[in-house]
C-alpha cells in the first residue's frame, strides 16, 4: 500500500518555525494501529489523518491518540487547499473525538472554530508540579485545570521564556499536559509554553488545543474578546484568537508545507 504524506509547519508562514504536523488523507479509514505506527515514524508532535468518506479527523502523537489538536487541524486544512480539495472562502467540518470542528480558508490564513475551555481555577498548584517546572510558589498567580491538562499563570513573560523543566520528573507526575502562561511583553497579548512529556512531547512548539483554555482565561482577565498569542518555544508561533458569544474560540493562523512524499507500506 502507498499513501501520500505531508509535513506542514503550522501557525507560521515560513519553514522551520511553528509546529510541524504530519498530514495523511485517505479515501477510507485506516486501522488505528497503523495510524499510530505512522505517527511514530513521522516523529513530530502530532500526525493528522482524514478519512474523506466521512470527514473523520484523528490525531496521533508518536505515543498516543489525542482528542483535540489545533495545529494538526490547521495543517490538514492547508493540505486540502494545496491539493485542490478545498478552496478559499470554503468551510469544511471535521468529525472528531471533540465533536464537529470546522476550518475556513481565508486568502492566506485559516480560521478554526474550536470549543472554548474555561479553566477550573484552584487555590494552589501542586508543589511537585512547580518543582518539576522550576517555578517558585511566589511566582504563580493562578493555577487551574482544563480537562486532564493544567494551567499555570505567572505575571512575568520572561519567567515563561526561560523555564527549563525537568521532563523526567514532570512526566512521572499525574497529568496529560501543562501550559505555563503570562501576559505578553510587546506586540502580543498572551505568551505561553506547553509541556506534554506524558504523551511523548516534552515541549510542543505551538499548541492550538491549549489556546482554547488560554483564550478563555486571558479574555476574561484582560477584558478583551480578540487576542494575539505567541507560543515562546524554540520554533515559536503566532495565533489570532477571538472568543464568541456561544462558547467558541475562532483560532487563526498560517501554514507552510515543508515535505511531500509517499509512504510505502
UniProtKB/TrEMBL annotation:
GO terms for molecular function: isomerase activity. Belongs to the PhzF family. Keywords: Isomerase. The active site is at 46. InterPro entries: Phenazine_PhzF-like. GO terms for cellular component: cytoplasm. The lineage of its organism: Bacteria, Pseudomonadati, Pseudomonadota, Gammaproteobacteria, Enterobacterales. It comes from the Bacteria. This is Phenazine biosynthesis protein PhzF family. Pfam families: PhzC-PhzF. It comes from Kosakonia oryziphila.
Amino acid at each position: 500500500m502507498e499513501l501520500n504524506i505531508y509535513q506542514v509547519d503550522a501557525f507560521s508562514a515560513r519553514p522551520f518555525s511553528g509546529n510541524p504536523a504530519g498530514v495523511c488523507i485517505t479515501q477510507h479509514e485506516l486501522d488505528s494501529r497503523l495510524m499510530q505506527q505512522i505517527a511514530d515514524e513521522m516523529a513530530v508532535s502530532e500526525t493528522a489523518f482524514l478519512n474523506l468518506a466521512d470527514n473523520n479527523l484523528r490525531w496521533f502523537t508518536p505515543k498516543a491518540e489525542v482528542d483535540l489538536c489545533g495545529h494538526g487541524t490547521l495543517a490538514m486544512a492547508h493540505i486540502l487547499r494545496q491539493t485542490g480539495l478545498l478552496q478559499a472562502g470554503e468551510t469544511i467540518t471535521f468529525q472528531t473525538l471533540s465533536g464537529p470542528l470546522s476550518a475556513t480558508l481565508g486568502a492566506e490564513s485559516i480560521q478554526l472554530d474550536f470549543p472554548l475551555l474555561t479553566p477550573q481555577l484552584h487555590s494552589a498548584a501542586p508543589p511537585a508540579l512547580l518543582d518539576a517546572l522550576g517555578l517558585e510558589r511566589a511566582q504563580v498567580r493562578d493555577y487551574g485545570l482544563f480537562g486532564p491538562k493544567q494551567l499555570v499563570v505567572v505575571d512575568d513573560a520572561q519567567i515563561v521564556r526561560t523555564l527549563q523543566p525537568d521532563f523526567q520528573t514532570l512526566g512521572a507526575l499525574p497529568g496529560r499536559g501543562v501550559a505555563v502562561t503570562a501576559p505578553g511583553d510587546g506586540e502580543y497579548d498572551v505568551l505561553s509554553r506547553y509541556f506534554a512529556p506524558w504523551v511523548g512531547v516534552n515541549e510542543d512548539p505551538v499548541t492550538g488545543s491549549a489556546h482554547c483554555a488560554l483564550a478563555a482565561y486571558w479574555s476574561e482577565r484582560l477584558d478583551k474578546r480578540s487576542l494575539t498569542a505567541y507560543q515562546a518555544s524554540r520554533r515559536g508561533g503566532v495565533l489570532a484568537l477571538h472568543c464568541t458569544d456561544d462558547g467558541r474560540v475562532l483560532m487563526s493562523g498560517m501554514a507552510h508545507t515543508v515535505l511531500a512524499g509517499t509512504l510505502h507500506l
